[in-house]
Structure formats: C-alpha cells, structure tokens
Amino acid sequence: MKAHIFLGLMVLCLMQLALADDPVIDPVVDPVDEPASESEASVFDFTLNKLDFDKGEYLEVTGTADTNVTITILNEGRMVFKRSVLLDGKNFALSHKIDLLDPSGPWEITVGDGNTQITKEVSVSQTRESAFLAVTFLSPTPTFFKRTDSIDIILRITDVGQPVDAALVYFWGIDGGKINIPHRDEAIYSYTYRIPENAELGEWGIKAVSFSRREIASIGGESTINVIIQPIQLAAKVFEPVERDFYFDSPLNLRVGFFYADDTTLMDGNVVAVLSQGIRSWELPMQLDEAGYFFVSIPTSALENKVLNVVVKANDGLGNSSEQFVQFEPQGYLSHFLRKNALFIGLPLIFLIALTVFWYKKSRVFLHKKDLLTGQKKFISLKKKNQQNYFKNRSISRSVFDKNEAEIDIKLRHIELELEKIAEQEASPKQK
C-alpha cells in the first residue's frame, strides 16, 4: 500500500516538471499611445487677482504658456505699460502697483505668446488721494481740430487752491504714448502737441494725470477734456507747366505738389488727374517723382482743339484729401492738323498747284495768241485803209503811202513770227 502511494507521488512530480519546461506564449497586443501628463500639455491662459481695482492696489497676472509672454495694459488706447515676462517652467507671473500717474477707467490686459493673444478687462477707480490735486485745463477747450494742427495743452495744478509747482504731470498722445508736461509758470504746466496726419478721426479724450508729494503723503489728480479731430484739406501747388497752355506737337507734363499745414509734403497716397474736353472725360494716374511731386505726362496728339480741363485729386489714404483744378488753352492746332493730315491734304494740294500752273501757262499762251490775232486783223484793216486812201481816195501822197505800208508790213511780219512760235509749241507735245 505504501509502495503504491509513493509511486503515485513520483508520477505527479514528473508531470509537473514536464509542464514547467513548456514555453509560455503571451497574446499579441497592439501598442496604445498613453495620454500626455498634465505637465506636458500645451495650455495658454491667465488669471487676474480681481476685476475692480483702486489706485494704489496691486494688479496681479498669473498664467501658463509654452513660451515667454508679453503683457500689455491699455486704457482706451493709452499705454499703461508693456512688458516681456519670462516663464518659470510653464508658469508666468507679474505684479503691477497701480500708482497715481496711471489713468483711471477701463483697462485692457492683453497677454500674448507670439502666436495667440488673450485680452481681459478690469476697472480702475480713483481714490481720495489720487483725486486730491485739482487738474484744470486752461487749453484747449472742447472744440474742433484738424489733423496736423498744433494744440497748446495748458494745465493749472492746485492743492486746495494753492499752486503746485513741483508736480509730475503727464498726458497721452493720440498714438497712446505718455508725454511729460513741463512746468512753465506758477501752477502752470504746458506742452504744444502736433496732431499726427494719421490721427483717428472723431472724438479724442485728452487725459492728464498729476503727482505730488506732501510732507506725509503722496497725492495725485486727473482730468480729461474731449476734442473732435477732423480731416484736413491738403494744400496743392502746380509746379509744371508754368504757362496754362498745351501744344499739339508735344506732351503736356503736369507736376503737382501736395502739402500739409506744416508744409510737410505728401509722399504717399493715391493721386489721379481727371481730364475732360466737352462731354469726354478720362482719368490718368500720377506717380511720385524724385522731387517729391506727383507727375503725369499727358499725350496731346489725340486732344481736340478745345480747352482742356484737369482736376487733380489726391488722397493720402488716411482721410485727408485735396482737389486742384487747372485749365489749359490749345496752341498750334493748325500746324498740327496739317502735319497730321499731310498725306490727305498734300497730294491733292500738289495736284491742284500743278494743275493751276499748267492752266496758267495754257491761258497765257491762249491770251497771247488771241492778242496777236486781234493785232493781225487790226493791221490788215489798216493796210487796206492805207491802200484805199492812196489808190481810190487819193487823200495821201506816195511817200506817206509807202511809209505806212512799210510800218504795217513790219508789224504784220512780227505777228506772223509770234504766231509761228505758238504753233510750234502747240505742235511739239503732239509730235512727242
């Protein structure tokens, strides 16, 4: 019995050893991409510590990005600041203290990573300290100004009615840049600002801020005045031609310059010359030349013998424009017409002249022959009368008769010779 049990255990052990030697084949599984961890994800966003601020508080910007970012803060187009911020890993942060020389009102905070921009809005309010100084605009008044006009910005700064002569005073230009207004006189700060020719048309809020130190505190002030910006009419001057004429045998070169109020020359814009004669009108573009003027060469060969009206229209692409009217009188049309139609006029004219010369010669011969024949008849008649007076009437002597006969014969012989020449001339073309 014990032997059977031992034998069974031996067989069981051998079977387990055989199974252990067989290879184990795992099933084939296609690889699957694992999702990237949150630390590797590309996330660009930012948050603000709050949305409503008072001057003196800190504005904090924090966010994540893949590249360094640029943070820009604007107040209705006025630049508060612009700064590049380096990443710390994937994170960035910026803290800005809103001081008394920052403008109040709506702020736009824009964060850009070079490819994308995100903008959020906050509101900045005045505090008691930031509104302590009285900022009074003495100039300008709420009125209209044109582009390129110069505005005298004059402010009076006071503290509880007392003049402040050591304040820092700034305003923002139309381009958003912050400009210092220097102290000029007791409590007076002034700056002359030229409105750019590309200034946005419409209302412009001139915002000024001020800052001063008291013995124990800093105080500020702020004020805004609104003016209206209008487009300007560019001044125009015709430099060529000097005379207001055009000639049909040469092109009409037109050169016009356009100028802003400060004598700055228009160097870039759309300028065309609109030409008209009677009911016909057409347009030619004008190009800027090396002298800074706009030029076009107008062909005159196709023009009519009428006054040429030209309206030069200029637009600088910014809403500023000008129109200059010029009128030109035609000159030298007859000679131009003859040259232009020489083939059609010249040949018939030559033929007419040749025909006239031919008939003139013919008529001269004819009239001469006619005169000779008339003279011949006259002398023959005289000859007969001379003979009648001598032979029949016996009214003249023999000597007078002979003398008359001789003279008449000479005349008749001369006429006969002339008639023979004419006969030869008339016969020669026929012979040829």
Briefly, what is this?
The chain has 432 residues and is of the alpha+beta class. Helices cover 26% and strands 40% of the residues.
Structural write-up:
The protein has 432 residues and is an alpha+beta fold. It folds into 4 domains: 41-125, Macroglobulin (MG2) domain (Immunoglobulin-like, Sandwich), CATH 2.60.40.1930; 129-230, Immunoglobulin-like (Sandwich); 235-338, Immunoglobulin-like; 350-431. 26% of the residues lie in helices and 40% in strands. It has 4 helices and 27 strands. It has helices at 2-21, 333-340, 342-392, 398-431, and strands at residues 45-48, 52-54, 58-64, 69-75, 78-85, 91-97, 105-112, 117-125, 134-139, 144-146, 150-159, 162-163, 168-172, 178-180, 183-185, 188-194, 202-213, 218-230, 235-240, 245-247, 252-259, 270-277, 280-285, 287-288, 294-298, 308-315, 321-331. The chain has a 5-stranded mixed β-sheet with strand order 2-8-7-4-5, with no helix packed on it. Strands 9, 11, 12, 15 and 16 form a 5-stranded antiparallel β-sheet that branches. Strand 22 (270-277) and strand 23 (280-285) form a beta hairpin. The model is unreliable at 1-7 and 11-39 (pLDDT under 50).
